[in-house]
């Protein structure tokens, strides 16, 4: 830590009068983004790529603005958002529950861990048609798909987090005759929380994938359905518009979780205070 | 802090022992089974420890000193003999006994005060008396200004002070310490040695102190138990009849050097 800050100061001094390191990197990122967006705009216009395959950026922006003003859009948007949220919450709870059970009862872990790993080895997207057959064309099949993809990172991270509690901490709790429950919520759970939260963030991304894949395979509404529909209609500008909205949902949720993470696990960055 | 009972302040060691020892080991032994073969971690130990005594266990790794301590704590069950605290055989951990580890094991999401109060919460006590007690103990270990600080803001020595305060708050009669200052630098260690002697003397606590540092053991103790490995066993016992209170200057005295020499003699040649 100390070394890093000394190095940073030294390199700043070398470029006296220049931008700080952080800002230089931000500037480089910004330049790359601008160049890419400019290429997106002008490559189709200059005929380098077909405007049907890759519509210019301005057309996509226009499509996005018109799309969000349509009455039908809100319906598709809320359907997918609901699928993602329910899938994410259920997946997180199930993953946390199973992960905790595996961590607390070694016997449960020994018996069921092979099944858990075996299940994870299956590319779960193959279940999508099956879930449509089982749960119908409605939201349920998409929620199930989201849950099935999302629960695993939470499960593994809960297990790993709870098992990484230092031996001395367990012995401390034993030495004061703490019950298993007390040890769990006073020591193990808070200790595991940062790791669990990393799994929760992954679960959100996976829930989005699950919901969209479910809609691709069979649905009559939702953003994934719209992407599929517009793709068939070769309205690629609208395809990109929906992708932008999906990216916004993912990024928004992620930043919300980041914020919650920082609030909840406040001790991680305690050094700076 | 604690009221001083007469037997809490033993006179110079080596004289009349009180009738009832606070900690006792009777043939206390431990063998581990490692991949089929039996390994003796500790050969039968017989030992009586007086109330208020400060006793250290020194020896190289594998001499069974930590094993001994863990059995007295009830964290490890013996394979032979028994450990007794206040005349009762140890079967499980007890609140009469506090255990301090080499790492402070503080909970980083809790402030100093919240860490110190953690055992009280486990015991179901949240009253004002216990909070006042915690405050006064934090004061006593020299962390009065850090009640609301988080562990990461504290140095290693300060973190071990918090760990000590956490134990003192629930007023155990016996304090077991497993190389608690092993990770500290020499200057911090000396400061901690002085503080530990002062605090435990004032509270009349019996201390069983495990260390591989001979100087530290001789400096603080009434008695030093010397242990050797393969198999782990007690090889000798040295009474430290140095006057109290002890100051750092004591380490330059010939009597001190003689005692160090005596301990080293029992440990045998070739040891540090």
UniProtKB/TrEMBL annotation, chain A:
<dbReference type="InterPro" id="IPR000515">
    <property type="entry name" value="MetI-like"/>
</dbReference>
<dbReference type="GO" id="GO:0055085">
    <property type="term" value="P:transmembrane transport"/>
</dbReference>
<dbReference type="GO" id="GO:0005886">
    <property type="term" value="C:plasma membrane"/>
</dbReference>
<feature type="transmembrane region" description="Helical">
    <location>
        <begin position="115"/>
        <end position="137"/>
    </location>
</feature>
<feature type="transmembrane region" description="Helical">
    <location>
        <begin position="85"/>
        <end position="108"/>
    </location>
</feature>
<keyword id="KW-0813">Transport</keyword>
<keyword id="KW-1133">Transmembrane helix</keyword>
<keyword id="KW-0472">Membrane</keyword>
<feature type="transmembrane region" description="Helical">
    <location>
        <begin position="143"/>
        <end position="162"/>
    </location>
</feature>
<protein>
    <submittedName>
        <fullName>ABC transporter permease</fullName>
    </submittedName>
</protein>
<keyword id="KW-0812">Transmembrane</keyword>
<feature type="transmembrane region" description="Helical">
    <location>
        <begin position="23"/>
        <end position="40"/>
    </location>
</feature>
<comment type="similarity">
    <text>Belongs to the binding-protein-dependent transport system permease family.</text>
</comment>
<dbReference type="InterPro" id="IPR035906">
    <property type="entry name" value="MetI-like_sf"/>
</dbReference>
<feature type="transmembrane region" description="Helical">
    <location>
        <begin position="206"/>
        <end position="227"/>
    </location>
</feature>
<feature type="domain" description="ABC transmembrane type-1">
    <location>
        <begin position="77"/>
        <end position="257"/>
    </location>
</feature>
<dbReference type="Pfam" id="PF00528">
    <property type="entry name" value="BPD_transp_1"/>
</dbReference>
<feature type="transmembrane region" description="Helical">
    <location>
        <begin position="47"/>
        <end position="65"/>
    </location>
</feature>
<keyword id="KW-1003">Cell membrane</keyword>
<feature type="transmembrane region" description="Helical">
    <location>
        <begin position="239"/>
        <end position="257"/>
    </location>
</feature>
């Amino acid at each position: 830590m100390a070394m890093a800050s000394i190095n940073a100061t030294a390199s700043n001094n070398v470029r006296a009068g220049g931008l700080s390191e952080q800002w230089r990197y931000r500037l480089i990122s910004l330049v790359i983004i601008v160049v890419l967006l400019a290429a997106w705009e002008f490559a189709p216009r200059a005929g380098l790529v077909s405007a049907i395959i890759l519509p210019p950026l301005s057309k996509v922006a226009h499509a996005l603005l018109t799309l969000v003003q349509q009455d039908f859009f809100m319906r598709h948007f809320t359907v997918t958002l609901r699928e993602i949220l329910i899938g994410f919450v259920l997946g997180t709870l199930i993953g946390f529950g199973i992960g905790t059970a595996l961590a607390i009862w070694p016997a449960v872990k020994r018996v069921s861990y092979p099944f858990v790993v075996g299940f994870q080895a299956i590319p779960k997207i193959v279940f999508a048609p099956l879930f449509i057959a089982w749960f119908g064309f409605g939201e349920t099949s998409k929620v199930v798909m989201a849950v099935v993809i999302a629960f695993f990172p939470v499960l593994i991270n809960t297990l790993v987090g709870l098992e990484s509690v230092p031996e001395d901490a367990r012995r401390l709790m034993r030495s004061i005759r703490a019950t298993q429950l007390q040890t769990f919520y006073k020591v193990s759970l808070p200790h595991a929380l940062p790791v669990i939260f990393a799994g929760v963030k992954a679960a959100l991304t996976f829930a989005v994938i699950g919901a969209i894949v479910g809609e691709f395979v069979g649905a009559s509404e939702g953003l994934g359905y719209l992407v599929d529909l517009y793709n068939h209609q070769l309205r690629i500008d609208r395809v990109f518009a929906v992708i932008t909205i999906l990216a916004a949902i993912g990024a928004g949720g992620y930043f919300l979780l980041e914020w919650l993470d920082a609030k909840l696990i406040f001790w991680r960055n305690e050094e700076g205070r | 802090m604690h009221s001083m009972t007469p037997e809490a302040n033993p006179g110079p060691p080596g004289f009349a022992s009180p009738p009832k020892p606070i900690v006792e080991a009777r043939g206390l032994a431990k063998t581990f089974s490692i991949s089929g073969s039996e390994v003796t971690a500790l050969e039968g130990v017989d030992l009586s420890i007086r109330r208020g005594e400060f006793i250290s266990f020194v020896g190289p790794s594998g001499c069974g000193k930590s094993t001994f301590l863990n059995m007295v704590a009830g964290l490890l069950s013996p394979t032979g003999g028994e450990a007794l605290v206040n005349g009762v055989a140890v079967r499980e951990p007890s609140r009469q006994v506090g255990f301090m580890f080499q790492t402070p094991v503080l909970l980083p999401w809790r402030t100093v005060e919240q860490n110190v109060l953690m055992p009280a919460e486990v015991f179901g006590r949240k009253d004002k008396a216990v909070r006042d007690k915690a405050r006064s103990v934090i004061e006593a270990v020299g962390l009065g200004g850090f009640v609301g600080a988080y562990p990461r803001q504290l140095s290693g020595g300060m973190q071990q002070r918090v760990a000590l305060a956490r134990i003192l708050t629930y007023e155990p009669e016996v304090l077991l310490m497993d190389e608690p200052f092993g990770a500290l630098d020499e200057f911090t260690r000396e400061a901690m040695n002085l503080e530990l002697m002062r605090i435990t003397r004032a509270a009349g606590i019996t201390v069983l102190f495990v260390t591989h540092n001979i100087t530290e053991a001789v400096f603080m103790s009434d008695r030093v138990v010397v242990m050797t490995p393969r198999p782990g066993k007690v090889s000798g016992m040295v009474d430290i009849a140095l006057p109290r209170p002890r100051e750092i200057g004591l380490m330059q005295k010939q009597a001190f050097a003689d005692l160090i020499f005596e301990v080293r003699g029992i440990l045998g040649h070739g040891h540090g």
